[in-house]
Amino acid sequence: MAKPETTVGQVLLARIETQAAELAGLDDAVRTDEPDAVHRMRVACRRLRSALRTFRRLFTPGATDELVAELRWLGAALGGARDREVLTARLAAEARELPAACGPQRVAAALERWGAAEYRRIRPEVVAALDSPRRRALGDALAVLLADPPLRPRAGRSAVPELSRIAAREQHRTAERVRTALGAAPGERSVALHEARKAAKRARYAGETAALAVGARAERYARRMKAVQDVLGEHQDAVVAASTLAEHAAGGGEPFGYGVLYGRQLATEEAARRRLPDVWRRAGRRKLSRFG
Q1: Sequence-separated (6 or more) residues with CB below 8 Å from residue 14
Q2: Torsion sign (Cα): 180, 183, 187, 190
Q3: Rounded CA gap, 241 and 235, in Å?
Q4: How far is CA 26 from CA 77, 229, 236, in A?
Q5: Which of 131, 154, 135 is nearest to 56 (CA)?
Q6: Tag placement on the chain: N or C end, fewer CB within 10 Å?
Q7: Angle of helix 255-283 relative to helix 104-130, nearest 10 degrees?
């Protein structure tokens, strides 16, 4: 007897089930502030939300809209603490590499005090979100979706051709965002590059989902999209860091050291923009999304 062909719906549900289990298993780790727990939970939220949005045409219209919104809410609740943590570590490390005339240890210590105070301020909001009825309802909604998936007939199509088509669509979407960003005026460039980064991340996650059925070809697609995401992430991190440093400098403290660090963020932004065309050239090849 021939083995039943894997459907795109089966692949999608396997992805959702894995990430839902990851999300459910991290509550206690986040509450006890275990290393990397907030980051892992946030990534699980992103992967789930991306799967529901990218493959939304496999579900009955509107069936996952509320779930997507609730995953966005939880990700945002987790994001403040994680973003401050990463930003502080980045700036403090760079501060310690400053010339002696900038007072590197003083600058690093000032940034770490700010980061610690911000984390103490935001941390209770994270715990409150996890303890809320809204968080429990989100877990229940994921369980219901997996127990009785609201799939349309098209979810029964053969997995590989559908996954290839979706990967090509996300690749094209990312290409449009990258072209817009590279051609944007200076005042609009940062926002456009951030939008391109979000598109590359969504394409990467589509590749990760496809890899469950396709294997190495989809993994290569996901790696190339991650490379685009990473270079754009470097740019966005530098934009956020520069804005934070400008605020610190305006408030006094270590304006000279902050100013030097600010200049380094601008250089990082420029370096990332220069690297983007080469990184995209590899990710934008049409054959990359041909899994069949």
Answers
A1: 212
A2: positive
A3: 10
A4: 15, 25, 27
A5: 154
A6: N
A7: 60
* 262-281 per-position pLDDT tens digit: 999 999 999 999 999 999 99
For residues 242 and 136, give the distance between their C-alpha atoms in angstroms, rounded to a whole number: 37
pLDDT digits 0-9 by tens, 207-256: 999 999 999 999 999 999 999 999 999 999 999 999 999 988 877 777 88
* 12 CB-contact burial (10 Å; exposed 0-12 / middle 13-18 / buried 19+): buried
Q: How far apart are CA 65 and CA 63, in angstroms?
A: 6
Q: Could you identify the residue written with the tokens 């939304």?
A: 56
Contact in structure between 92 and 111 (CB atoms under 8 Å): yes
Taking the model in full, what pTM does it have? 0.92
> From CA 127, how far away is CA 33, in angstroms rounded?
10
Nearest residue to 159 via CA among 286, 292, 49 = 292
Which residues neighbour 198 within 8 Å (Cβ) at sequence distance 6 or greater?
Answer: 177
Q: Residue 11 CB: number of other CB atoms within 10 A?
A: 24
pLDDT over 70 at 2, yes or no: no
Q: How confident is the model at residue 4 (pLDDT cuts 50, 70, 90)?
A: low
Structure tokens given for 290:
């041909």
Token representation of residue 182: 């590279």
166-176 burial by CB neighbour count: b if 16+ within 10 A, else e? bbbebbebbbe
Contacts of 118 (CB under 8 A, 6+ apart): 84, 88
Backbone angles phi, psi at 160, to 5 degrees: -60, -50
Return d(Cα 14, Cα 272) in angstroms, integer. Answer: 35
pLDDT for 261: 95
149: left (phi over 0), alpha (psi -120 to 50) or beta: beta
* Confidence bin at 1 (pLDDT 50/70/90): very low
